[in-house]
Amino acid sequence: MPPRAKPKRPWQEVAKEAQEHRDSTLNALSPPAPKLPTELPRNVLPIAPELLHPNVIFITDLPPEQLLTFLSTGQVSAVDVTTAYLQRAAVAQGLVNCLTELLPTQALTRAKELDAYFQEHRRPIGPLHGLPISVKEHIGFQGLRCTTGYVSHYDNIAKEDAHILQILRKAGAVFHCRTTIPQTMMHLETDSNLYGVTNNPYNRNHSSGGSSGGEGALLALHGSCLGIGSDVGGSIRNPAANCGVYGIKPTAFRIPTDGWGYIMAGADTVESVLGPMSTTLSGLRLFMKTILDSQPWLTEPALVPFPCREFQLPQDRPLRIGVLWDDQIVRPHPPITRALRTVADRLQIQGVEVVDFNPYLHEEAWAIIASLYFTDGGEADGEAINSSGEPWRPLSEWIITQNTCVKKLDVGELTYWLEEREAYRKEYALHWNELGVDAVLCPVNPGVAPKHNTAKYWSYTSQWNLLDYPGVAFPVTKVDKSLDKWDREQSPLSEHDTYNRELWDPEAFDGLPVSLQLVGRRFEDEKILTILEHITEQIKLPFEQFP
């Protein structure tokens, strides 16, 4: 790692300024958000409904598609909806520390413009008229800071809105807050020296996930109903799973990424994507359709000109779903396996053909993707951390300095790993062909939301980043300590498996969300959403009530 240069001012001073700014945006709310109890319970989900006005709860508990119906017919104003979400987001911040800033002035100004437009024209301005959307902090927002989780980037100010924000704003969206991210953006945890740790609403001793953990926690608390996350190794699906909400990692080059903050040198070696997270499955489709219907490839040439498509379920044969029970490296914790078994069994009852999907060299996949994450040997990230004097967060050290795959690659070594990537993608395509499945049902993580700083196994999500396959995470059930027990006869599959097994704690995990993932092949984003919608209706997912 590069030597530490003397910073311009102490990192603690910068962090204090960042947090004071965030607090000032919360204090700008009128009326002010209700005060929280001085002592918070482990599970903070019930608190907002107890504190906020019933009208605020009614609005913020509506699914996004129903809220849009109310907005587009004038049954509720954009100002009322925005005010409600600002209130609930502020409460969420106090409960789990999920915001970098609230945007009351910008959001209410925009909401008033939308209400004036509706009054004059008696119709909505676009498909998202008046819908509040939360935004992950590293997505460029004109005139606002874009830190990418580093103290040294605190003074980076975006000169214009990211392309995706331009599209959503034109569709009528209202951006009401920005959400927390981790140092380096490369954690399945959300913690930084600028803003601290974001906790899981179901259990504050556990992780909300990362790197879109601010989004996941905020959505679980209904401080937002639709938000923007990003994913290069699991950063949408992991927090969605941890927090019991929905999230899709799209195929690369479908959703615009122009205008975000991203430090990783050689980032094109592993395509990072933006995608939606939502309180509902239909929220994901709403987001994807709105973006793709705008034809973003006309102004962002890197995008594939692939419009939103309708997928028809097979009519001449049963739907065929492969189940990846484990990757032969790490066995999932008991509640994950129980969820897989329950879903598979109920699908079979509904006439779906369910087959085992055996993993194909998943350990090799990690070696490839981990070698391509930091092709400069982590120098850029190390410099970004060290230049401010801020300490390395535990999972930053783990992924960069303790990861044996992180090496500075010369041209020949880079070429080798890129060739390995393409060879593996071809081999996996043939493997999928042999099994002939429409989609794969698999874990999102090797367990449910873990305790802080323990999420060190990415391969149930990063596997699909390497292949550039779309995957959607969705809630299924909750941990039940009376049902979820290890099979003591099983011996560990690997050192990783031993570590994962030691993390299992039925008392601590009891009541946490249990989520799964549905994966399709490249550019089958609409297909997996359609299949999941069908499955959800057929077997009545999720099996338990989620907030």
Short description, anyone?
The chain is an alpha/beta fold.
CA radius of gyration is 22 Å
Helix content: 25-40%
CATH superfamily grouping of the largest domain = Amidase signature (AS) domain
CATH class of the largest domain: Alpha Beta
Can you tell me the number of structural domains? 2
Question: Please, what is the average pLDDT?
Answer: 96
Strand order, main sheet: write it out. 1-3-2-8-10-9-14-15-13-11-12
Per DSSP, the total helix count is 19
Helix and strand composition category: alpha/beta
Portion in beta strands: 5-15%
How many angstroms separate the termini? 44 Å
The dominant shape is globular
CATH topology of the largest domain: Amidase signature (AS) enzymes
- Beta strand count: 15
Biggest sheet overview:
11 strands, mixed
Topology, element by element:
Elements: H1 11-27, H2 47-51, H3 54-60, H4 64-72, H5 78-96, E1 99-102, H6 104-121, E2 132-136, H7 163-170, E3 174-179, E4 191-192, E5 196-197, E6 199-200, E7 203-207, H8 213-220, E8 226-231, H9 237-243, E9 246-249, E10 273-278, H10 281-293, E11 320-323, H11 334-349, E12 353-356, H12 362-373, H13 379-386, H14 394-401, H15 411-435, E13 439-443, H16 459-467, E14 471-478, H17 495-503, H18 506-509, E15 513-519, H19 525-539
Parallel strand pairs: 2-3, 2-8, 11-12, 11-13
Antiparallel strand pairs: 1-3, 4-5, 6-7, 8-10, 9-10, 9-14, 13-15, 14-15
Helix pairs in contact: 3-5, 5-6, 8-9, 10-19, 12-15, 12-16
Protein name: amidase
EC number: 3.5.1.4
Region (Disordered): 1-37
